[in-house]
Amino acid sequence: MLKCEYDARQEPTRRYIHIMNILHYPADRLLRLLNGQKVATMPQLKEALGTSVTYTVLRKLAPLGYRSSYSHSGTYFTLDSIAHYDELGLWSHRDIRFSRRGTLLNTAQALVSESSAGYQAPELQAVVHVEVKDALRQLVQAGRLFRQEWQGLYLYCAPDRRRRPEQWAARQAQGAAGDDLQAAKALFYSLLDEQQRRLYAGLESLQLGYGGQHRAAERFGLGVDTVARGERELLGGQVLRERVRQPGGGRPAVEKKHPKS
């Protein structure tokens, strides 16, 4: 087996090649291009840098803080220092869309999870201005979002089991505009913990009578099995009673003082 030995005489040549690469591809060419026209395609960036290698361009862009568009199949690039993101972390130049979260998948997940009442596909599409059905489907399949039917369309909510009922209750309150009782119920439901929500849904189901489990499940965004479990726990008295305040919590007892005799 041949053994390659280090040749110190080659070191100046290596340094020369490294320096020439730095000089040959100065990043300020990319800065001038992007500052001038706000966005650019990869072929434009390659031409400005004087290279035909995509990796070289991306390596030069990385320290500058770049973003690729979530529209137009990610074919446009800009810099965070150029983009003026709105309160949702979105920015557009003409019809080219960018997001602080990068891809459409990450953007859709963040917008849905952080929303107060979830999103239906047409609502989210009106925000991001691109088709979102396929992205939402992928996010649900990957467990990154949750969906349930609401008024003939899917409502997309956060995957977190604590956050999701709050969004569903807020959506219920929106749908109950003009019905003060239903809006108050939705608000009350959003303040409950997981066990209390299950019990409250079970109580509503019992009050509704025949078909109540399905109607309560739809109303509160729960599974029918969860509503049925709430019914069983109520009827069987199988309710977990826990102290609201941990033992030893609260203000220390005040010791009575008696005058010395």
What is shown here, in short?
With 261 residues, this protein is mainly alpha-helical. It has a domain at 24-101. It has helices at residues 11-24, 28-37, 42-49, 54-61, 104-114, 121-128, 133-141, 163-175, 180-190, 194-208, 212-220, 224-236; strands spanning 40-41, 66-68, 76-79, 90-93, 96-99, 119-120, 146-150, 153-157.
- Sheet with most strands: 3 strands, antiparallel
Number of helices: 12
Helix content: 40-55%
Give the termini separation.
Answer: 103 Å
In one word, what is the shape? elongated
Q: Give average pLDDT, whole number.
A: 81
* Order of SSEs: HHEHHEEEEHEHHEEHHHHH
Estimate what percentage of residues fall within beta strands: 5-15%
Number of strands: 8
Oligomer: single chain
Q: Compute the gyration radius: what is it? A: 30 Å
Extract low-pLDDT stretches: 15-23, 253-261
